[in-house]
Design brief:
This is AraC family transcriptional regulator. Helix content is about 45%, strand content about 20%. The chain is an alpha+beta fold and about 290 residues long. A hairpin with a 2-residue loop joins strand 6 and strand 7. The longest helix has 19 residues. The two termini are about 25 Å apart.
């Protein structure tokens, strides 16, 4: 999907952040990958079928998707090779310098993309993405980055913040940067036996301050965000591997089987074994 060397952690490829653009047919992905970028997809024709953790996401013709690439994701088969799709990656550090509103930040930090009808942004996206593909390679990409920022703001403006079900009271650029540092640490270390207090310590913050700031900025607690990452990883492993549920629980960072079953069943509405069976049945039906 993109250039650049990456590292492999188990079966997930970690790709370094980069300013990057591409246009053309979707390419199959053998492994899920993650990257510390904000990614924009615009589908002119065909469609994209993603697996984010264990969540299937479809981006159809005339739709645009925006997401933070920290959650392992991949395009699934079958892929419409005759489709026309544009991609842009913006390093998260660059996006943070834009001082996006707290509600927008909360949307971007979710583990699944925001997908909208491209008509809401009221501009010729095909022409814009074609221009950016050339301009982002120039030594001075300032104008292109300003246009990309404007598009991200337009998309986030049309996102229904209430749909998150989370109370976001916001904060300044420094608070946003701190919240993202916390989220980044969780995304990189959730497989390890860490707690919310460990996350605060690793980011050199007072635990009470860290937990309050994160909830005010992102709309959920550090503990909840940690659990979301672990459940998403468990879903991915249940769908994409033959690991036992015991091994899945351990690999996803859950400290015990009882904790795994409790959080997974509460989030997904069914036990891990039943979830795997249902996903396999759905895959056979689609095939």
């Amino acid at each position: 999907m993109r250039g650049g060397m990456g590292t492999v952690d188990d079966d997930v490829v970690t790709v370094p952040p980069a300013l990057w653009a591409r246009h053309g047919a979707p390419l199959p992905m053998q492994r899920p990958h993650r990257h510390d970028d904000i990614e924009l997809n615009f589908v002119e024709s065909g469609q994209l079928e993603y697996l984010f953790g264990g969540t299937h996401v479809r981006v159809g013709p005339g739709e645009i998707a925006v997401f933070w690439g920290a959650t392992p994701h991949r395009l699934t088969e079958p892929v419409a090779h005759d489709g026309e799709v544009s991609w842009v990656h913006i390093p998260l550090a660059t996006a943070l310098s834009w001082s996006l509103p707290a509600e927008g930040l909360a949307v971007l930090l979710r583990s699944t993309p925001l997908v909208l009808d491209a008509e809401v942004v009221r501009c010729d996206l095909a022409a814009q993405f074609a221009t950016w593909q050339a301009d982002l390679l120039e030594e001075d990409a300032t104008a292109a980055l300003l246009e990309v920022q404007a598009l991200v703001r337009r998309v986030l403006h049309h996102a229904d913040a209430a749909s998150t079900g989370e109370d976001v009271s916001g904060g300044g650029p420094e608070q946003m940067s701190t919240a993202v540092a916390i989220a980044r640490y969780v995304a990189e270390h959730f497989r390890e036996p860490i707690s919310a207090a460990d996350v605060a310590a690793a980011t050199h913050l007072n635990p009470t301050y860290a937990m309050t700031l994160f909830r005010q900025t992102v709309g959920c607690t550090i503990g909840t965000y940690l659990t979301r990452c672990r459940v998403a990883e468990a879903q991915r492993l249940l769908i994409g591997t033959s690991m036992t549920t015991v091994d899945v629980a351990h690999a996803a960072g859950f400290g015990s089987q009882s904790t795994f079953y409790s959080h997974f069943t509460r989030t997904c509405g069914r036990a891990p074994g039943a979830y795997r069976a249902a996903m396999q049945h759905d895959a056979r039906s689609r095939g």
